[in-house]
Automatic annotation (TrEMBL):
A Pfam family it matches: GST_C_2
Gene Ontology molecular function, alphabetical: glutathione transferase activity
Record domain GST C-terminal: where: 204-328
Lineage, highest ranks first: Eukaryota, Viridiplantae, Streptophyta, Embryophyta, Tracheophyta
GO cellular component: cytoplasm
Name under which the protein is recorded: GST C-terminal domain-containing protein
Active-site positions on this chain: 84 (nucleophile), 227 (proton donor/acceptor)
Site (Lowers pKa of active site Cys): 285, 328
Residues given in the record as glutathione binding sites: 124, 161-164, 179-180
Membrane-crossing segments per the record: none
CDD domains (alphabetical): GST_C_Omega_like (cd03190)
């Protein structure tokens, strides 16, 4: 039997292409809406709270040459939207690990459009040409018009959402994996034989427990927390999410007062995962998702930390604020019916952050 990389061995859904509605243990109140769900805007429990469904393609690319999806230069393609934080963390890994020459990528248009004439679904589509908007390009592999087309090429009975990122296998013409937390781990460890930065380990064995524990509260309260604020349809779930969000941001601020990165003094996966939300915070979430109790730039440590991560080689090109703003303000008509894009604040994340100087000599215990 194929042995799986240790970082993924605990997962229950490996190497299965299954429909989310058939297997996930969901609360009764939520089951019907999940089966019907086609986009995140539909993922609503009866209480009016946003409840994200799990990804369904969970295959693993492995350095084991006998695996179904072995590491091969040029075989895999990453479909992203620059707007999407989950997809952006995959692109960040592609750059940081120096995999850009062995894994190609394409970004869709930022604003959701109708994906088919026969129904009302709104989702990610490819532009017809490279010239429409810098960064977005047509599908170079399958001539797909939308991300939905790719899922339908890969599976005839797929009933989940048509999300990015999508890690695509050019050889088997299928989706390998559509869960960013899996994809970043594969990029971190499996491609080292052909990566330009094989020694960069963002999930080192000695920090794994710490990273996992940190990811858990940051995902719940911050990464997914901003969506719970923005997509809430009743006051109570919003209040709950926003309280939790700011407790977690305050906790980060305190941690980052004592150490350069969120899990200590080395850059880890947990930083990349936190960054993708922070970089969107003042430009989008503060306004569009009503996360306005405090702005990121009012947190001195978090703000400079965000600049610090932005300035890691390979990171800045993964941040396309034009795509980010166009997407959020333009794709959720229930939240922003006229699609007006606020003009500010246009923060310069490449300005000095001072974190290496301030924290170099004082590594205090928390
Ligand atoms: N669990 C997925 C979540 C991905 C996800 O939610 N992507 C959003 C964009 S930010 C999406 O594609 N949504 C499409 C939709 O809701 O229809 C991951 O982390 O990879």
């Amino acid at each position: 039997m194929l042995s799986l990389p240790s970082f993924l061995q605990f997962r229950p859904l490996l190497n299965t292409n299954i429909s989310s509605s058939s297997t996930l243990p969901l609360p009764n109140s939520f089951k019907l809406s999940v089966r019907m769900a086609r986009s995140a805007l539909d993922e609503m429990s009866e209480s009016g709270a946003f409840a994200r469904t799990a990804s369904t393609f969970r295959n693993i690319i492995s350095r084991d040459p006998n695996s179904e999806f072995p590491v091969e230069s040029g075989r895999y393609h990453l479909y992203i939207s620059y707007a999407c934080p989950w997809a952006s963390r995959c692109l960040a890994y592609l750059n940081i690990k120096g995999l850009d020459k062995v894994i190609s990528f394409t970004s869709v248009n930022p604003i959701w459009e109708r994906t088919k004439e026969s129904d009302e679904h709104m989702g990610w589509v490819f532009p017809a040409t490279d010239a429409e908007l810098p960064g977005a390009g047509p599908d170079p592999l399958n001539g797909a018009k939308s991300i939905r087309d790719l899922y339908e090429l890969a599976s005839t009975n797929y009933s989940g959402k048509y999300t990015v990122p999508v890690l695509w296998d050019k050889k088997l013409k299928t989706v390998v994996n559509n869960e960013s937390s899996d994809i970043i781990r594969m990029f971190n460890s499996e491609f080292n034989a052909i990566a330009e930065n094989p020694d960069m380990d963002l999930y080192p064995p000695q920090l794994r427990a710490k990273i996992n524990e940190t990811n858990e509260w940051i995902y719940d309260a911050i990464n997914n927390g901003v969506y719970k604020c923005g997509f809430a349809r009743k006051q109570e779930p919003y209040d709950e999410a926003v309280t939790k969000l700011y407790e977690a941001l305050d906790k980060c601020e305190e941690i980052l007062d004592k150490q350069r990165y969120i899990c200590g003094n080395t850059l880890t996966e947990a930083d990349i995962r936190l960054f993708v939300t922070l970089i969107r915070f003042d430009e989008v979430y503060a306004v569009h998702f009503k996360c306005n109790k405090k702005l990121l730039r009012e947190y001195p440590n978090l703000f400079n930390y965000t600049k610090d991560i932005y300035q890691v080689p390979g990171m800045s090109s993964t941040v396309n604020m034009e795509h980010i703003k166009r997407h959020y303000y333009g794709s959720h008509p229930t939240i922003n019916p006229f699609g007006i894009i606020p003009s500010g604040p246009n923060i310069d994340y490449s300005s000095p952050h001072g974190r290496e100087r301030r924290l170099a000599t004082e590594t205090r215990e928390i």
